[in-house]
Design goal:
single chain; six-stranded mixed sheet; three-stranded mixed sheet; flat
């Protein structure tokens, strides 16, 4: 399952956001640093309005959406890479996730203490990024010391890795996130990924605002947006407090509340969709009388790979994939009608499964 870590300085709204994400009170929320002592974990369904429509057409009550696991990681402080605050144990938790959501405080509130004494989102981002980079730098230096002898001896893999580690040392010294595709070739990227560095993970900046700035943002969010553009990151405006209130409402009430605030989707829905966009993921669907089930694949996945997400035997024995575009199925109302209109087709092993494809795999065991 996809794992996303929520990080940020103390008192920026991380745990409040986590509570809203998981519609729970699992994460304590208090006006003091380190109220999150162990990483809280919650599994959140990915919003997909197509699934309910398909379930009605297929006459089933069973809907299984795809999901993301969110990990709420304790607030970092300056010096965390050297053990300050709660230190390295939490940096380890960040290494285990696929993407990072960095919650950035973009609101003024005299009743909520800022750990640095003032609200400055770019300073906050710099503190987090620097601590992650310093921790990664220590790992890179240790690794390079280990393989240097092999590299000097001419070992091909060690020479490649040594070159990658030298370049990473330069980049990490700048204290920011690294888009590996900008600096490394395909072979080098494989070596970088094997290191599992925090500074190479995709990032979404969740600009946490008051309800009054949720629609248009403010000067703080403009700063964050400009920064994110320069570093190939995503930005989502979110009001953690509003999201927590929405989690207490029914679906219709929540929609009405969002309408009053002048926004269409909840920040959480936009954030989850941003994770999918950032990680370049797609959803295909299996739908029938038994259930409607959404599955996650990377963009560009071929039909046998998609089949393997359901079961490894499907990939091994793959013969053909019967593809029906979701839009056509909803419009025509049934597989029979789709076949009659010629919109259902058979595809082979080279077919790239598209987002929203309804798929029935033919395979032999």
């Amino acid at each position: 399952m996809l794992r996303t870590g929520i990080v940020g300085l103390p008192n920026v709204g991380k745990s409040t956001l986590f509570n809203a994400l998981t519609s729970s009170k699992n994460a304590q929320s208090a006006n003091y640093p380190f109220c999150t002592i162990e990483p809280n974990v919650g599994v959140v369904n990915v919003p997909d309005e197509r699934l309910e429509v398909l379930a009605k057409l297929c006459k089933t009550d069973v809907i299984i959406p795809t999901a993301i696991e969110f990990v709420d990681i304790a607030g970092l402080v300056k010096g965390a890479s050297k053990g300050e605050g709660l230190g390295n144990q939490f940096l380890h938790n960040i290494r285990e996730v696929d993407a990072i959501i960095q919650v950035v405080r973009c609101f003024d509130d005299p009743n909520t203490i800022h750990v640095a004494g003032k609200v400055n989102p770019l300073d906050d981002i710099e503190v987090i990024n620097t601590e992650l980079a310093l921790a990664d730098l220590a790992s890179v230096e240790k690794r390079q010391a280990r393989i240097s002898k092999q590299a000097k001896g001419g070992d091909k893999d060690a020479v490649l890795e040594d070159k990658v580690l030298t370049r990473l040392t330069e980049l990490l010294s700048e204290g920011t996130f690294i888009n590996v595709k900008d600096y490394f070739n395909e072979d080098e990227i494989a070596a970088v990924k094997a290191l599992n560095l925090m500074s190479t993970k995709p990032v979404i900046y969740a600009a946490n605002v008051s309800e009054y700035d949720l629609k248009d943002g403010n000067d703080y969010t403009k700063q964050v947006t400009e920064y994110a553009k320069k570093h190939n990151a995503e930005v989502v405006l979110i009001s953690a407090k509003i999201e927590e209130e929405l989690a207490e409402l029914g679906a219709d009430e929540a929609k009405e509340y969002l309408k009053e605030l002048g926004v269409q989707d909840s920040g959480i829905d936009r954030m989850i969709k941003s994770v999918y966009k950032l990680l370049n993921l797609r959803t295909f669907i299996t739908a029938g009388e038994k259930e409607v089930h959404a599955w996650t694949i990377p963009a560009g996945a071929k039909a046998p790979q998609a089949a393997g997400v359901i079961h490894t035997d499907f990939e091994k024995g793959f013969i053909r994939a019967e593809i029906t575009p979701c839009k056509d199925f909803i419009e025509l109302g049934s597989y029979v009608a789709c076949k009659e209109k010629g919109v259902t087709r058979l595809e082979g092993k080279d077919y790239e499964v598209q987002d929203g494809d309804l798929v029935h795999f033919r395979f032999s065991v």
